[in-house]
UniProtKB/TrEMBL annotation:
Boundaries of every Amine oxidase domain copy: 16-447
Protein name per the record: FAD-dependent oxidoreductase
Amino acids binding FAD: 35-36, 235
Organism: Microbacterium saccharophilum
Keyword presence, Transmembrane helix: no
C-alpha cells in the first residue's frame, strides 16, 4: 500500500476539489486529490457517444456566474451562445401547441396576470434572502414548514399558473416533486441565481456553453496538478483528530494536516470516519437527498426545427419532457436537442423497458417539434441516478424543515475535515459556479488556519 504525506488531502476530483487543490498549491501547500472514478470532473462529463459529442453532465454558463466565467477565461477556454433565434413552443393543459417569442408563456390573460403578480411577489421575497444564509431570514422557519406546492396553491386556484410557477424550481432545478421541498428551499434556489425572474429566464440561466465541452474545466485544472491527482482511489476510511487526517483509499493512504470532502453530501456515508462524525452531522446528512432528472440527448442529421422557424426552446408542465432546447455543438452540421424528464416522471419511465422509455420520451419531444423528432441518429439518456459515485441529479437539497434546522451547520468543519461542493453553495447553488466558489472558500479557510 502506497503511503504519502501532504499538507491537504482532497476527496473528490470535481470542480470544487480541483479548485481548492490548485489554490492551496499556489499558496505553497502540498496536496493530494483522491478520486473514486476513473476520470476527473464529477458531475461534469463530456463524452463522445456514437460519434456525437454530448454533455452528459453540467454544461451551461450564465452571466451571473462570475467564478465559473473567471475560471473558463483563466484556462483559456472559449464560450459560444446557445442557439435561440425563432419561436419557442408551449403546450397547454389540453395539448394545444402554441408558438411564442419573449419570456411570457402563451396562456390566457387571466393566467398571465396571476403568474406576473406571483412572480413579482417571489422576486421581492428572494431579494430578502441571503443565499449564503437563507436560514437567517426572520420568516425562515415559517417558510421552511410549508411545501412549495402548498404555498403556491394558497396564492391562487389557477392550476395552470401554479404548475408553470412551480416547475422552475421543482422539475427544472431541484428535480423533486413540488410537495417534497419547502418554500424556503425554493427561495434559496432562486436567490442563488439572483432572482426568481432570472431562474425562469432560459436566455439568462442557459446562456452560453464552452467550446469543446465544460468537462475541460476540471480536466485542465487536474492537468495543472499533474501527479497529485489519483484516480480509481475511493476513500474507504478517514481517521481524524486535532493532529490531522489519514485518508485510506483502495490502493493508497494519505496522511495530511487537513482534509476536504469535495463530494456530494449523500456520499459522506460511504466513508467510515474514525472516530465517527459528531451526532449533528449524522442527523443533518439524513435530511439531504439528491433530486433526479434524466437528461435526454437526441442528435439529428440537421437542426430541422430551425427550418420551421423554431428556436428549439420548449416548455410544458404537462409533458413528459417538461423542457427542451437546441443543444447543437459549436460548428456542428448536425442538430442536437436536449430534453429533461424529472422527478416522478423519471421514476416512471425507468419502470418500463429501454425501448418503451425511448419511444415515450421521443413522442413527447415530437409534440414540440413535429414527427421528425422521433427519428434521431443518436439517442442517449444521462442517468446520474445509476452512477455509484453520484446517485442522483442535479444536486442535493433538504427535505421539509431541514434547511432552517441544519443549514447553518452545512459547511462547518469537523476538526481538520472541511466540506466543499456545489450542493453547499449559496450563489451558484447546484451549479459549477457554486462548486468553484466553495472550492475557493474552503481553500481560504484552510490557509487562514495555516497562517494563524
Amino acid at each position: 500500500m502506497n503511503e504519502i504525506t501532504r499538507d491537504v488531502v482532497i476527496v473528490g476530483a470535481g470542480a470544487a476539489g480541483l479548485t481548492a487543490a490548485n489554490q492551496l498549491r499556489k499558496a505553497g501547500l502540498s496536496v493530494a486529490v483522491l478520486e473514486a472514478r476513473d476520470r476527473v470532473g464529477g458531475r461534469l462529463w463530456t463524452d463522445t457517444i456514437e460519434g456525437a459529442m454530448l454533455e452528459i453532465g453540467g454544461q451551461w454558463v450564465s452571466p451571473d456566474q462570475d467564478a465559473l466565467i473567471e475560471t473558463v477565461a483563466d484556462l483559456g477556454l472559449e464560450t459560444f451562445s446557445r442557439y435561440r433565434e425563432g419561436d419557442s413552443v408551449y403546450i397547454g393543459p389540453d395539448g394545444t401547441v402554441s408558438r411564442f417569442t419573449g419570456d411570457v408563456f402563451p396562456v390566457s390573460a387571466e393566467t398571465e396576470a396571476v403568474i406576473t403578480e406571483i412572480t413579482e411577489r417571489l422576486d421581492a421575497m428572494v431579494a430578502e434572502i441571503d443565499p449564503d444564509r437563507p436560514w437567517a431570514h426572520p420568516r425562515a422557519e415559517e417558510w421552511d414548514r410549508v411545501s412549495w406546492d402548498a404555498w403556491l396553491r394558497a396564492q391562487t386556484d389557477d392550476d395552470e399558473a401554479v404548475r408553470n410557477l412551480a416547475f422552475a424550481t421543482g422539475s427544472a432545478m431541484l428535480t423533486k416533486p413540488t410537495h417534497a421541498f419547502s418554500l424556503l428551499q425554493s427561495l434559496l434556489m432562486a436567490a442563488s441565481a439572483g432572482s426568481y425572474s432570472n431562474l425562469v429566464d432560459a436566455d439568462f440561466i442557459l446562456d452560453k456553453r464552452v467550446v469543446g465541452g465544460l468537462q475541460q474545466v476540471p480536466l485542465l485544472l487536474a492537468e495543472r496538478l499533474g501527479d497529485d491527482v489519483f484516480l480509481n482511489e475511493p476513500v474507504r476510511t478517514m481517521e481524524w483528530s486535532d493532529a490531522g487526517v489519514t485518508a485510506i483509499a483502495d490502493g493508497m493512504t494519505v496522511r495530511a494536516r487537513h482534509g476536504i470532502l469535495a463530494l456530494a453530501p449523500v456520499l459522506y456515508n460511504r466513508i467510515s470516519f474514525v472516530p465517527a462524525l459528531p451526532r449533528l452531522q449524522h442527523q443533518m446528512h439524513q435530511h439531504l437527498s439528491m433530486g433526479f432528472v434524466i437528461k435526454v440527448h437526441a442528435v439529428y442529421d440537421r437542426p430541422f426545427w430551425r427550418e420551421q422557424g423554431l428556436s428549439g426552446t420548449a416548455f410544458s408542465p404537462y409533458e413528459l419532457s417538461h423542457e427542451a432546447y437546441d443543444n447543437t455543438n459549436h460548428g456542428d452540421e448536425r442538430g442536437t436537442l436536449v430534453g429533461f424528464v424529472s422527478d416522478r416522471n423519471a421514476d416512471d419511465v425507468f419502470r418500463v423497458s429501454a425501448e418503451e422509455r425511448r419511444e415515450r420520451i421521443l413522442e413527447s419531444l415530437s409534440h414540440y417539434y413535429g414527427p421528425e423528432a422521433k427519428n434521431p441518429v443518436v439517442y442517449y439518456e444521462s442517468d446520474w441516478g445509476a452512477e455509484e459515485w453520484t446517485r442522483g441529479a442535479y444536486a442535493a437539497s433538504f427535505d421539509l424543515g431541514g434547511l432552517s434546522r441544519y443549514g447553518a451547520d452545512l459547511r462547518t468543519p469537523v476538526g481538520p475535515v472541511h466540506f466543499a461542493c456545489s450542493d453547499l453553495a449559496g450563489a451558484g447553488y447546484q451549479h459549477v459556479d457554486g462548486a468553484i466558489r466553495m472550492g475557493r472558500l474552503v481553500a481560504d479557510t484552510i490557509l487562514e488556519e495555516v497562517r494563524a
